[in-house]
Structure formats: C-alpha cells, structure tokens
Amino acid sequence: METFNLPHPLTYNRIFVAGHRGMVGAAVVRRLVAESCEVLTAPRRELDLTNQQAVQDWMLKNRPDVVVLAAAKVGGIHANNTYPVDFLYQNLMIEANVIHAAHLADVPRLLFLGSSCIYPKHAPQPISEDSLLTGPLEPTNEWYAIAKIAGIKLVQAYRKQYGRDWISAMPTNLYGPGDNYDLASSHVLPALLRKFHEAKQNGSPEVVVWGSGTPLREFLHCDDLADALVFLLKTYSDDAHINVGSGVELSIRELAETIAQVVGYEAKLTFDASKPDGTPRKLMDSGRLHALGWNRVRVLRDGIAGAYEDYLSRVAE
Ligand code: GDP
After folding, report:
1. This prediction's pTM
2. Which residues' Cβ are closer than 6 Å to ligand 1?
3. Quick count: other Cβ atoms within 10 Å of Cβ 313?
4. Which end of the chain is less packed: N or C, by CB atoms within 10 Å?
C-alpha cells in the first residue's frame, strides 16, 4: 500500500466543501474558519453536482487542494423508504462525479462522507468498520446505503489504482443547526423537536412518535462531526473508512423524553405502530478514532438545546 506523509497541515490549502448549504457542509465551513485555509463553495444554481460535465469543468477550473464531499441526498426513514430512486440515483451521481472530477483535477486530498446505515441490519454492536458487507442491509434505507457503500469503494479504488491519499468517514445519526424540520423527510431528532414545540404552542396533550419507541440510536452534533473531520483530514490516511460516533446512545422513547425536557413541555407519548422502526440498534464502535486522539463530544442535552434555539430562530412560526 502507498504510504503518505502525515500529518497534513491545512494551512494555505484551498478546500472545496461540496454541499456547504447542508447541515454537515455548513458545519465543516464553520469549523474551517479556525484554520488558515481558503474555503471554496459552489451554490447549487451554479453547480449541479449530478451533472458530470459541470462538475468536471468546475473542478478543473478551481483545482482545490482538498475536497470534502458533504453533498448528498439525505432524509429520514420515511423519505428513504418512499423515494428509493432519489436516494440511490442522486447519491451515486454526486459521488461519482465529484470523486472522478477530483481525480482529473489531481486533487491531493479528499474526504468522502458516508453514514452508519452502510452496515448490516444485524451487525454486532457496537458496529466496527469491519462489519461492512458482512450481511443484509436494513430495507428502509438500503438505497441510500448502497450508494454510500459504492462511494467508499470508489475512494478505495482510486487509492488502489492511482495512489490517491483519499479517505472516507462514517458519521452516526446527526443533528444540530441547519437540520431539516420537515416532518415528511426529516430524521427523528428534528421531527420530535418540532412535534413537541407545536404541541406546546397548541396545548396539545399528546405527541405521536413513530414505531415502537424501542429502537436504539446514537446521536452526534454536526459541529462535533466537523471537528472530527478536520482532525481526520490532518491525521488520517488509510484504505479503511473510519467511524465517527459519539457513544451517546438512547432509545427513541428516551430521546422523546429528553426533547420534552428541552422544549419544556410534558405530553403523553403515543406510539404509531403503522410506521417502521427501522434497524433495531445502530451504535458504532468509534474506537479507532479515539485511538488516533479525537474524542470531543458535547453532552446530548446541551446539543439539543442549541438545536432547539436554531429551530426557534430559523423555522418556528
Ligand atoms: P433511521 O436512523 O435511518 O432509522 O432514521 P430516522 O431518524 O428517520 O428514524 C429513527 C427512528 O425514530 C425510527 O425507529 C423511527 O420510526 C423513529 N421515529 C419516531 N418518531 C419519528 C418521527 O417523527 N420522524 C422520524 N423520521 N422518525 C421517527
């Protein structure tokens, strides 16, 4: 295998953050302010990442030193389950276009972002990086997962065939400022923040929680993820993708109770069994990341309180 010079200082680098309007991309841009680098972004109206020619033209014109591929079609369990084409096709196009264009433009460093849903539904917990492709996927998000697995393999293939010093990171379930609060397409944490807020406003006695409330999920704040990603850009170079989790795990019921406290509204929880639970448990083993020296995760309640402020200032009516 190629060996690369570590660490990678980011100073003076021109870093293209693809997907800078999304929750993760925006967090990476915020975090990069603390580094002496130049951040490049491309508004969607100027650069459609599913358009191969447009992406190649942009990359060859701008020739960044680093690409952070945070652009993706993302969504919660309902959206994933309902729009399989969007999640598979758009993500395949975005990653194939950006990664290949980065190769054509000879971009020295690239960080691809996947997701914890790449792992088999019944992977041993906590899920280590080695669990990839050892069993069937969770059906509610397999479209997205297949696209993300292809992205990891694409990065590995460019490493193997062309000696590219490119890496992939797998974040767990994310939340934070800039999240999507649309109930039809959001993930559980922003959905429940909104539902509790609206119940409080309307004086409604109950909040509907999808599924049984028993699935376990791990939650990571997007700004903690961004900090870990900058750390990895500086210190990590390996074929293997690397997990970025928080170790903070709770059931959906416990999450609802925590959100009730943050919003300051106690409501009866009603569980809607017509909605899917998805994978029963999704806790990642982030031991490799910790062994490298990163472990700076905020307290979940504090993180949710910050997310609620974002919701109140940006979304709530
Ligand atoms: P997942 O981690 O890919 O399953 O994605 P989600 O964040 O969308 O869902 C996580 C879990 O929360 C699933 O078991 C959902 O059924 C459950 N859940 C409970 N209430 C809601 C809700 O209002 N919206 C969403 N998206 N999920 C919910």
Report:
1. 0.96
2. 76-78, 117, 141, 173, 186-188, 191-192, 209-211, 215, 217, 252, 275-278
3. 9
4. C
